[in-house]
């Protein structure tokens, strides 16, 4: 039911994009329709596996988890995409770069973002789908979280949407009043910013630890004001949420302030707080506070 409602709610965004298959540096309405269809396809694989606990967990070389559901969802998505967009490329977490590698169009996909939580029964996971053009950048994104009953999408110039409701970032302009989400890991300590992040989290009005895609979706919705991801994130973790945040009026950069979804760091905010966050991140923090 969620998928059918989402597709109907997307009609307004489709009308802003025009018709037909993308042939130039702008996405078409059909591209969003296809992205929503791909999300439906992945949901049909991942949600039953999650609910029935019908999967085995394996570990990659970096010790991150992977399941048959990850691989099967990406396999089916890839198959459908080859049929619908044979001239496009695909960059997926599980199978790497496939399709037409010379195409200016590339789909960037994570079949299950939040696999670690998925394997433990935590419902904070989603399929992330984005369409990128070599000249025009990110054009379409869909984030589908079936265990949460939520879906978000965005189109370049067409705004950001959550289950048919337009997303707009918050107007909070003071860190002291901010809802702050920080995902700490060893990478932040290695970069020398762990203490600054702890201080930032303690300075905000409320500190949360949602993690993964959802923290950035909450920024886009105006529920969270700042979201700082773990070090080590990749393009397939970030492309879809970046477009969502930016189309909602927010800012999305790495920890150096570069607008990017390349990783290995990612910070999203409502925009008003971004410069302050970056400044605090670089400032030395005493241990005796």
* CATH architecture descriptor text of the largest domain: 2-Layer Sandwich
Low-confidence segments = 1-5, 11-25
* CATH level 1 class label of the largest domain: Alpha Beta
Helical stretch count? 10
Range of strand content: 15-25%
> What's the name of the CATH homologous superfamily of the largest domain?
Fructose-1,6-Bisphosphatase, subunit A, domain 1
Main β-sheet, spatial strand arrangement: 4-3-5-6-7-8-9-10
Global morphology: globular
Determine the CATH topology of the largest domain. Fructose-1,6-Bisphosphatase, Chain A, domain 1
Task: Give the total of beta strands.
Answer: 15
Give the helix level as a range of percent.
25-40%
Euclidean distance between termini CA atoms: 51 Å
Class by alpha and beta content:
alpha+beta
- Spell the H/E element sequence: HHHEEHEEEHEEEEEEHHEHEHEEH
The average pLDDT value, as a whole number, equals 89
Q: Please indicate the count of domains.
A: 2
**Major sheet attributes:** 8 strands, mixed
Please compute the radius of gyration using only Cα atoms. Answer: 18 Å
Describe the structure in your own words:
The protein is globular. It has 289 residues and is α+β, with helices and mostly antiparallel strands. The model is unreliable at 1-5 and 11-25 (pLDDT under 50). The chain folds into two domains: 2-166, 2-Layer Sandwich (Fructose-1,6-Bisphosphatase, Chain A, domain 1); 175-282, D-Maltodextrin-Binding Protein, domain 2 (3-Layer(aba) Sandwich). Strand 3 and strand 4 form a beta hairpin. Strands 4-3-5-6-7-8-9-10 form an eight-stranded mixed β-sheet, with helices on both faces. The protein has helices at residues 2-9, 11-15, 29-52, 68-84, 115-120, 186-191, 194-203, 212-221, 235-247, 274-282; strands spanning 57-59, 65-67, 89-92, 96-99, 105-113, 126-133, 137-145, 150-155, 159-162, 165-166, 179-182, 206-208, 226-228, 251-253, 267-269. Helix 3 runs antiparallel to helix 4 (68-84) and helix 8 (212-221) runs parallel beside helix 9. 37% of the residues lie in helices and 24% in strands.
